[in-house]
Amino acid sequence: MPLNNWLCIHPSSATTDISDTVSLDNRGLAYGDGFFTTMGVIDGQILWLAHHQQRLISHAEALQLELDSHSVMALLQTHAEQLQQGMLKLMVTRAVQDVRGYGYVPTASGSDCEIWLKSSAMTVTTTQQLRLPDGCSIPMQPISSAICLSSQLACLPPPLAGLKSLNRLDNVLASGELQAIKAKVLEDNIKPSISEGLLRDMIGRWVEGTMSNVFYQLSDSPLSTLSSEKMSSEKLSTLPLYEDNTNYLTTGQWYTPSMAKSGVAGVMRQVLIDALSTSKHPVIIRSLKDEDLPQLSQLFFCNALRGVMPMSSLTLLSGEMVILSDSNRI
After folding, report:
1. Of 42, 119, 190, 234, which sees the most CB atoms within 10 A?
2. What is the pLDDT of residue 192?
3. For residue 289, what are the contacts with CB-CB under 8 A and spacing of at least 6?
4. How many C-beta neighbours within 10 Å does residue 135 have?
5. Cα–Cα distance measured from residue 249 to residue 307, given in angstroms and rounded to the nearest whole number
6. Residues 175-216: pLDDT tens digits?
C-alpha cells in the first residue's frame, strides 16, 4: 500500500485510490455519516489492538453499520506489518443510499459501509516511557503547559456522545484557536511551551483537549499527596516520570470527565481507566467545573498516538495561571 494515500479496503472490489473513486454523494463527505480511528504502529504491531477493535464494534453498533471487526482488524494487522512503524487511520462511512437526503433504508443495504485506510510512516515512540501497573508501557511526552480555550464542544444525545464520528467541526474551530495562540506566542518571542487547550462543552463543564482526553487530581482531595507541598513548575519538570516509576499514575486520586454528553471517549483514556481499575485508587469519572480549576494539583492529556502529555501549568480564561502541584494561582 502506498504511504499517505487513501485506499478503499471495503467493499473488497474497490481496492483503488480514493482520488479515483470517491463520489460527492459519499455520506461521510456529505453528512459526516461515519467514524474514524487512528492507530499507532510499532515493530509491525498495532498498539492497543483490543481497544481499537472495541471502538469499531461500539461505533458500528451506535451508527447501525454492518462491520465485521475481526476481518477488518486482520487486514489492518497485515498493513501494520508492512508499515512497521507509523500510523494507520481508518475511516468508515455509510454506503451511498437509494433514498434522497439524510435518510437511509432500514434494510441490509442501509447498513452497508465503505472502509478507507491511510498508512503514514512516522515516529510513534519517545525516549521516555511510562510503565502502567499492568506492566505495559506508554509514551510519555515532555512536560509542557495548557491553556483554557473559549471554543466550546457541542452536547450530543446518546448514542452519539463519546463517538469519534466524522462530525468534528467543534474540534476544528478549537484547534484553530489554539494554533492562533501558539502563533501569537512565537510572534512575541516567548518560548513556546503550550501544547494543548482545555475545552468546555455548552453546559460549561471542562471535558477534554483539542485532540486528547484529560485526567486530573485536586489539591483538596483526601488522597492527594501533593496538596500540602509547594512546588514550582521548574521543580515539577524534574520529576522522574519514567519507565521504572509508576507513582505518577498510582499515587493520589485521578479523575477524568464523563463523555456522556460531549467529547470523544478516546482509546488511551480507556487504556488508562482499565490499567488502574485494579489499583488502590481506580480512576473516578467526575465533572471538571470552573471552581475546580484553581484546585488542580496534577493534569495530563492523553491520546493513542502521543500517550501521556503531562502539564506544568494551566492558563485560565481570566489570564491567571494555575501552577500544577501547587494549589495557589499566580
Report:
1. 119
2. 54
3. 204, 205, 206
4. 8
5. 13
6. 999 999 998 887 776 665 899 999 999 999 999 999 999 999
